[in-house]
């Protein structure tokens, strides 16, 4: 269950980062509220996950899911241009996240 909470926490990290971008510097109230709510959900789920998962695993996975997810959202929804070479390193991040999960057992 902790792994599921951790993955959902990572997704909400992408949610709050996206809402923060859409809030225009926290000036649009609906997106500002979505940012804060997303942060709270993300942090609460991370905190729950770290009750049974080591911090040394949970935190890098949480940030990695958020990083990869934010890159994908930026490219798909905001038209961010990512050089091909950068995609190689995004793939390495994803491989690292999967590798951590696979090698920990549980």
Automatic annotation (TrEMBL):
One of its GO terms (molecular function) is transmembrane transporter activity. Its main location: membrane. The chain crosses the membrane at residues 29-47, 59-78, 84-104. GO terms for cellular component: plasma membrane. PANTHER family: GUANIDINIUM EXPORTER (PTHR30561:SF0), SMR FAMILY PROTON-DEPENDENT DRUG EFFLUX TRANSPORTER SUGE (PTHR30561). It is found in: Cell membrane. It comes from the Bacteria. Pfam families: Multi_Drug_Res. It is a multi-pass membrane protein. Belongs to the drug/metabolite transporter (DMT) superfamily. Small multidrug resistance (SMR) (TC 2.A.7.1) family. This is Uncharacterized protein. Keywords: Cell membrane, Membrane, Transmembrane, Transmembrane helix, Transport.
